[in-house]
């Protein structure tokens, strides 16, 4: 028989080791769930229609504030009632709440990207690396180190890039209770003060330091600043302080009404007016962060027209309930959908996909999220069982990703080798030659597309050390071709649309016995007009241009070739228009060389697509993958008007890419694009005769 004493000791021991779903009473707040709905809708609509809701990415910032508020409130209640936080239980609850749905989507992505029919094999290495990084919740650091620009649209991101925010949140769940416990311990041990007051002070200090770091790092290093954990901690801290300081929760009817609607208006303003050019996070992130905090703090629910009541309506609460799974599913489906046979990018396809995202999110919430939180196999056992089980599940997902690489590694290598062979020995009347070579008139391609759409993504210049990016302002130059003293000196200068010509120009220099010098900086054309992008990146571009001008002045070149992305934004201050600003900047930069007797050759930019045409080409006939000329081609490319000056030669290959109404991603059997706007080396090689002729004529060498 068990005595009362032994039973109580047994109960105590069990309560200390089991991991209940709620360590303290639930504090469900309906209007906060509605705020989740706003956050996820901002993000989803931004990803579906980035040109319509240009600042929808601030939804992630709203999530951070909500998490800070809810998690801190939970920890504070436990700390206040028990004087401690059972870390194992806390982390186990988080694992059961978040990991099942997260790992399910990651497993889905690992399988899909390993299926050549659904995703290009050329993208496999990058996809699998990020899946593994996301599985172990370090995706934000992977992207920060890789200097990815989440707000840019150069190339296609992976199916799991959105896991950066989930990774950051998981790191928050690890660090936050430790910060609160340390502060509480110091308060009791040394100052005999209130645990919660000490926690609030500690979080306030961390938040201020984090905000300062965020602002400075955004100005000096904007790309990684978007992902770095400490640069975002202040947003969690703002929500946390509302949970810890009761006076910040406004119950007065008028004040709550005004505060709540002001917060919603601030969020709508940021979602509509912010865009990829907004220096973010930095100072700009304070507006959506404080807006979300204002909505949370507005606690009065007396009238139906109060935001707290409207956000608690059933549709908003439903969307808030499925917001986690909706966030998980929407992005992979957006990336994968264009590669699915018979799928397109029309408004009807997008709406259908959006509906599918909601259905999958509800199913995941109903059959994965909710059951896993209450699975007795885990909840009735010590927290370590949940944590070890979670680790095992993560290892399984990583193993599936590794298996995907093993299954496709040989195909990947064969595809790379096929591209190398194609460059060395292209077919007759291939690519631009099918249009520009009179001997190819009337010839027809057999329908083969080279390089294959599944591998075009790797058909790029290999000398990436010659290409500086982001805030790097060094005037890095690379030297190729002849080293003889009497060799003709050719300079190739530009942004990524200049860099895409590097391999072709290397071959030209070798063939003609010329010496080639290059200067490239991503998103920074050779001009003197400031970019519309300010901050550290704009400053780095200015510094790079100045440094390149100094380097050019030290050398005597026989000709300079330059190209630039036609959609680059310029600061129109002091000019009649942005176009006029761009033209003036090009002409001033080129004039420094022309005044020294060095001719300049430039080229009209190639069409720019909304998404990588290879997604369409992998599953459809090339004739169905064309784009309307008005949609993909910039007719008023500023390079065209800038070239109307003595000493400049303009090349225009628009008739190669397009007819009067449409542009094609395939010309003469050649696959033009490796992503949505950069040409394959294979195709630029087919333009080599035209580039060579123009350079020779500019140097007076044409026979």
UniProtKB/TrEMBL annotation:
Record has Glycoprotein as a keyword? no
Every SGNH domain range: 476-692
Record key words, sorted:
Membrane, Transmembrane, Transmembrane helix
Q: Which residues cross the membrane?
A: 28-49, 55-77, 98-119, 173-191, 198-219, 225-246, 253-274, 280-301, 322-341, 347-364, 385-407
Do you know which Pfam families this protein is assigned to? Answer: Acyl_transf_3, SGNH
The record's listing under InterPro entries reads: Acyl_transf_3_dom, Acyltransferase_3, SGNH
A biological-process GO annotation:
lipopolysaccharide biosynthetic process
Q: Which GO terms describe its cellular component?
A: membrane
User: Care to name a GO molecular-function term for this sequence?
Assistant: acyltransferase activity, transferring groups other than amino-acyl groups
Residues covered by the Acyltransferase domain: 33-364
Q: What is the designated name of this protein?
A: Peptidoglycan/LPS O-acetylase OafA/YrhL
What species was this sequence derived from? Microbacterium pseudoresistens
Q: What is the lineage of its organism?
A: Bacteria, Bacillati, Actinomycetota, Actinomycetes, Micrococcales
């Amino acid at each position: 028989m068990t005595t009362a004493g032994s039973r109580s000791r047994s109960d105590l021991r069990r309560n200390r080791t089991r991991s209940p779903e709620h360590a303290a009473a639930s504090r469900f707040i309906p209007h906060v769930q509605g705020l989740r709905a706003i956050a996820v809708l901002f993000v989803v609509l931004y990803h579906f229609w980035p040109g319509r809701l240009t600042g929808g990415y601030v939804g992630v910032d709203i999530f951070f504030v909500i998490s800070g508020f809810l998690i801190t409130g939970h920890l504070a209640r436990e700390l206040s009632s028990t004087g401690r936080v059972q870390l194992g239980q806390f982390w186990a609850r988080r694992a059961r709440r978040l990991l099942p749905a997260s790992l399910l989507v990651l497993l889905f992505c690992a399988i899909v990207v390993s299926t050549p029919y659904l995703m290009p094999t050329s993208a496999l290495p990058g996809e699998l690396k990020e899946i593994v990084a996301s599985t172990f919740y370090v995706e934000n650091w992977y992207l920060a180190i890789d200097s990815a620009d989440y707000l840019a649209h150069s190339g296609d991101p992976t199916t799991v890039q959105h896991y950066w925010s989930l990774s950051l949140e998981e790191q928050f769940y690890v660090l936050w209770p430790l910060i609160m416990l340390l502060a509480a311990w110091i308060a009791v041990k040394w100052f005999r003060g209130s645990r919660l007051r000490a926690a609030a002070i500690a979080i306030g200090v961390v938040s201020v330091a984090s905000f300062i770091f965020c602002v400075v790092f955004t100005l000096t290093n904007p790309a990684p600043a978007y992902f770095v954990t400490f640069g975002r901690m202040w947003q969690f801290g703002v929500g946390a302080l509302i949970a810890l300081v009761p006076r910040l929760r406004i119950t007065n009817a008028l004040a709550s009404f005004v505060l709540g609607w002001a917060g919603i208006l601030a969020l709508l303003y940021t979602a509509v007016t912010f865009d990829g050019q907004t220096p973010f996070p930095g100072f700009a992130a304070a507006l959506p962060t404080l807006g979300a905090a204002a909505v949370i703090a507005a606690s009065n629910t007396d009238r139906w027209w109060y935001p707290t009541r409207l956000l608690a309506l059933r549709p908003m609460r439903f969307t808030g309930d499925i917001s986690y799974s909706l966030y998980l599913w929407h992005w992979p489906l957006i990336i994968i959908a264009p590669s699915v046979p018979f799928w397109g990018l029309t408004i009807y396809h997008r709406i259908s996909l959006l509906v599918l995202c909601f259905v999958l999110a509800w199913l995941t919430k109903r059959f994965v999220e909710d059951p896993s939180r209450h699975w007795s196999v885990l909840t009735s056992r010590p927290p370590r069982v949940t944590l070890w089980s979670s680790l095992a599940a993560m290892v399984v997902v990583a193993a599936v990703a590794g298996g995907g690489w093993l299954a496709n590694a040989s195909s990947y290598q064969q595809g790379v080798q096929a591209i190398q062979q194609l460059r060395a020995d292209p077919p007759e009347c291939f690519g631009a030659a099918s249009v520009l070579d009179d001997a190819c008139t009337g010839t027809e391609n057999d329908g083969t597309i080279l390089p294959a759409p599944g591998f075009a993504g790797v058909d790029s210049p290999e000398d990436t050390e010659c290409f500086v990016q982001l805030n790097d302002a060094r005037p890095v130059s690379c030297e190729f071709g002849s080293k003889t003293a009497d060799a003709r000196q050719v300079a190739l200068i530009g942004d990524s649309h200049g860099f895409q010509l590097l391999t072709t120009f290397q071959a030209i220099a070798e063939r003609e016995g010329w010496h080639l010098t290059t200067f490239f900086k991503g998103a920074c054309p050779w001009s003197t007009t400031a970019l519309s992008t300010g901050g550290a990146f704009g400053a780095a571009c200015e510094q790079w241009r100045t440094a390149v001008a100094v380097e050019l002045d030290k050398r005597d070149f026989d000709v300079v070739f330059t190209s630039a992305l036609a959609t680059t934004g310029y600061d129109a201050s002091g000019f009649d228009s942005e176009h006029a600003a761009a033209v003036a900047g090009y002409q001033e930069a080129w004039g420094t060389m022309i005044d020294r007797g060095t001719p300049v050759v430039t080229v009209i930019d190639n069409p720019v697509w909304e998404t990588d045409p290879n997604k369409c080409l992998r599953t459809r006939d090339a004739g169905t993958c064309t784009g309307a000329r008005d949609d993909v081609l910039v007719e008023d490319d500023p390079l065209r008007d800038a070239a109307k000056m003595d000493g400049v030669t303009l090349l225009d290959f628009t008739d190669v890419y397009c007819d009067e109404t449409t542009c094609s991603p395939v010309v003469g059997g050649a696959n033009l694009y490796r992503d949505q706007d950069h040409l394959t080396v294979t195709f630029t090689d087919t333009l080599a005769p035209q580039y060579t002729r123009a350079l020779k004529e500019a140097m007076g060498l044409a026979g």
